[in-house]
Amino acid sequence: MRCRESLDVVLDSSSNRYQIIVGCFESLFSTPLKTWFPVVLSAIALAIPTGLYMTASSVKFFSFFLQQPPELTVFLAKDIEQSTAHLVQQKIAEINSVHSAKLISADEALVDFQQLTGLHTIANYLQENPFSTLVIVQPDKSHASLEAFQELSAKLYQLDYVDLVQFDQEWTAKLFSLRKLASSFGQTTIGLLLIIAIALICFFGRWRVSDRTDEIKLLSLIGANSSFISRPFIYSAVFQAVLIVLITFGFVEGFRAVNQQFVADLISLYGINSATEGVMWQAWAIILTAVLVINVAATKIAVMFSLLKLEKEMLL
Amino acid sequence: MISIENVTVQYPNGQLGLRKLSLTIPGQHLVFISGPSGAGKTTLAKLLALRIRPTEGRITVADNDLDELQGRQIARYRRSIGSIFQDMPLLENKTVGENVALPLLINKNVKTDMIQQVSNTLDVVGLRNKLNYSPIDLTDSEQQRVRIARAIVTKPTLIIADEPTINMDPQLSIKIMQIFKRLADRKLTVVVTTHDRTHLADPRNPVIEMQGGQVFDAMQGVVRRRAR
Fold first, then answer.
1. Which domains does chain B have, with CATH numbers?
2. Do residue A215 and residue B134 have CB atoms under 8 angstroms apart?
3. Which of residues A121, A147, A167 is at a domain's end?
4. How many domains would you assign to chain A?
């Protein structure tokens, strides 16, 4: 036998709201499968794209294995003096689309050649150093496209003392295409998974309402307006949205904690010393707001549809 | 007073619920609508409760032309009457007191008045001591009395009860009907549909006999007073 609080508590409007929220908590235990199943499933659906986003953004999954960006090699005039070469290097470094410009003198180039080939005595047989002074240009990340490379190459050609600008056009094109493909694939996957998560949240919102059609019908028949009928459903939707985001947070942070060491080890192989970063609190605030809005809107629409359907059935 | 003029109800499946029904139901009485199953009793009760609309004809309840009511006016009308139908169950997740208080909450009554009204109404149906019980802990008769309490708690001027004593033993049926009689004595209009003829014996209560969607064995448009 169930005896609850006195009617005095129930009829107070603020207590009434409190009762609805307490009712939501009670339902977690009184009807666990019915309450937890949609919440956990929605949380899983939401955790997958969130986790993927976290992985993609913090570990830079799509770019870390392509971390060696293409470079341009600028060959300077053969007879250029070292001081002039420095000036050219500075001019190149000042170009907007250039991240860095490294000067390699002809002598340094020869030493590098000797070390790389093992032909240490070759200089003795040469009448003059055959190498030119070089500037290795690393373009800015924001100019990571074949067109930008070609544009930069044209700019470099306009500088004095520049004999030749070289870069592997085919390799650069392939690299950027791969990057674009990976990025587009990642974004599409995250987008699709988000749509699935939103659809699930909407479906369960509607499910909760359709499960209580009798209650809606009764309230409608005793003259309740739509906002009165919606109220308990809205409170329940808010409560469940918070629960969904909390569980999603648990899943994502749990995933991060479990895989943190593994990811750190993996990325260290590429020379990056960085740990995975979690989803920022601003992002969680956005996720919470979005889930709240979606869940409440889906619930409200479901109640309105349910009422319209009932009225249509009732009023012929 | 309730006026029904040439009302026909045809359901979507083509079945006729009422055929050119015209009658006047006097106010402040307990009025019985009697007849066999399929006579149109429930259809008439649903029309009065504005749960369905007539295909043809006009219904006026206390100067309200029901056909003209739309949207919020429908909700307002429903708040102004008390309905007891089989498909209006008690909410099992609420106590008896909360169920009875629902119409008051919808009407946004003052809290202190509500507590008094709920207690008094449960007193009328003899269930004041069950205020904090769950409906599932009540017997069928007690549940029906809570439904009656919920219908009358706002002190409506019109109460419509569709087969309120169905599946009840005779003693309990009499108890329920006594409640309706007491309400009618308080100058409320109570319309009760029933197929149980044992309740029709009191000559003070008008009886409308129906069959095949029409008033049977009576002058059309005039409520027949049975005298025994």
1. 26-45+70-215 (3.40.50.300)
2. no
3. A167
4. 2
Which segment of A31-40, A234-243, B56-65, B172-181 scores lowest on mean pLDDT? A31-40
- Whether residues A207 and A265 fall in one domain: yes
Asked whether the beta carbons of residue B134 and residue A13 sit closer than 8 angstroms, the reply is no
Binned at pLDDT 50, 70 and 90, residue A81 comes out as confident
Identify the three-state secondary structure at position B153: coil
Give the residue from B106, B131, B143 with the most A CB atoms within 10 Å of its CB, the best one to mutate.
Answer: B106
Tell me the DSSP string of chain A. Answer: ----S-HHHHHSHHHHHHHHHHHHHHHHHHSHHHHHHHHHHHHHHHHHHHHHHHHHHHS-HHHHTT-S---EEEEEPTT--HHHHHHHHHHHHTSTTEEEEEEE-HHHHHHHHHHHH--TTHHHH-SS--PPPEEEEEE-GGG-SHHHHHHHHHHHHTSTTEEEEE--HHHHHHHHHHHHHHHHHHHHHHHHHHHHHHHHHHHHHHHHHHTTHHHHHHHHHTT--HHHHHHHHHHHHHHHHHHHHHHHHHHHHHHHHHHHHHHHHHHHTTT---PPP---HHHHHHHHHHHHHHHHHHHHHHHHHHHHHHHHHHT-
* Average pLDDT score over chain B: 85
Is A6 inside any structural domain? no
Most confidently modeled range among A105-119, A178-192, A250-264, B137-151: B137-151
Question: Poorest-confidence range of A59-68, B124-133, B155-164?
Answer: A59-68
Is pLDDT above 90 for B84?
yes
Secondary structure (H, E, C), B2-56? EEEEEEEEECCCCCEEEEEEEEEECCCCEEEEECCCCCCHHHHHHHHCCCCCCCE
Domain final position from A128, A145, A167: A167
Q: Which tens digits make up the pLDDT trace of A146-178?
A: 788 888 888 888 888 888 888 766 666 677 777
If pLDDT is split at 50, 70 and 90, which confidence band does B107 have? Answer: confident
Distance CA A101, CA A135 (A): 6
Distance between CA atoms of residues A86 and A94, nearest Å: 12
Residue A25 lies in a domain: no
Task: Give the residue from chain B lying closest to A8, CA to CA.
Answer: B115
pLDDT band at residue A3, thresholds of 50, 70 and 90? very low
Q: Do A223 and B78 touch (CB under 8 A)?
A: yes
